[in-house]
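Fill-in record for Membrane protein involved in the export of O-antigen and teichoic acid.
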Amino acid sequence: MTNQTSRRAQALRAASRFVGAGLLDQVVIATANAANTLLGGVLLAKEQFGALALALSVGYFSMYLNRAIVGDVLLALASRYDGDHRVRLVRNGLTTALCSGLVTTVIFVGIWLVWPHNGKIDLHELIWLTPFMIPIMLHDTARCDYLADRRPEKALSIDLVWAGTQGIAILFMVLIGHSTPGGLLAAWGIGATAGATVYVLREGHLPWGGNPKAWLAETRHLSGWFTATAVVAQVQVLSISFLVAGKLSKIDLGNLRFVQTVQLQPVQNLVAAIQGLLVPRASRNAATAAKPGAEGLEAAAALRRQTRQLAIAFAVLGMLMVIIVWPLVSWLLTRTGKFSEAAPLALPIALQGAIYLLQVPFTAAMRGMHRARMLFVQYVVFATISLTGLSIGANYGLHGAAWGLLTGSTAGLIVMMTLYFHALKLVGPPPESPATPRLDTAKST
């Protein structure tokens, strides 16, 4: 009994270290990403801040599109393998990310050359990201490699390199008294370059040593739908920036992005951290659930139990967030001269964050079950209703636009839960498995 208790205690300590490293890793990388927006809001004039927000929107669009092609697939697929198969997947994924970075670099230069450098939608600051898109893609892929391999402490280490290097670059810019949108963007890219370099030197995975064709051939059942989903999701995010800047103004876009960064981005970062921890585990359970016998039934029950328990926990966390964060952010914004007119945005954005939290366990389970096509359907509904709500709400100002975005998030949650319960019917051992154990497990869950 003593030995069994000791093993359980050791397992709990190991699990706590794993979760703690994963959450801390997301805090660090989120800080690196949020620093551009937060410091831009403080250091730059409102017109300059709006231009920074537009450039960042395009940069994030490209990075998250690459994550769909490579990073999300590593989380859902590489976590099922060990040995040479896994090493080959990682190398092929890194080379695919390298190719994504090269294509993005060419596109950014083209946009900078042909896009008008004036007007409401101004992308001239995008040129500052051009030299850094390759290391940004590689670093993001490296993080997903570590998370898929259940080594979040390694992901944390390269993210600390990113954040630390970026912080030094920003500090230097502030000390010389020359704060610009381009400087903030370049500091972000320099940090990514440092983090990606440490990964390559440590792991010995040369970015050009893989085969993108082999990657696409092996992962197309996931990467195709994940990419389509990411395109819809990121077009939705990018369209928000363009619609707000076009229908309202760059100043309104700056107000919206600042409140979202303060209030919604921490939630999105927590969501990303939890997804990185849950998807590999859900994927292993879903794979095991396909086996006949007691092992498959137990894994299917574990997947259901994990989703149910986390849904309850995140629902409570979401309610607490609205109750506490909404009045606090609203009060703080009213005390600032620069963003006081954005205070009414605090409530709809707080509610949107609560919905994102509640959706986490369902999204993780769907990714683990490899229901990529269903995720695509959910994002199409979410994006369509969000942009429609935004467009209609913008007729009543920025406040109306924020409530319009909330309608899309609500619809997305409803669709996600509906698809999840449908997907559960497909989880478990094949039909030829004994029927009685399946009924017993269903009663227990």
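KEY FINDING: The chain has two domains: 20-223, 248-445.
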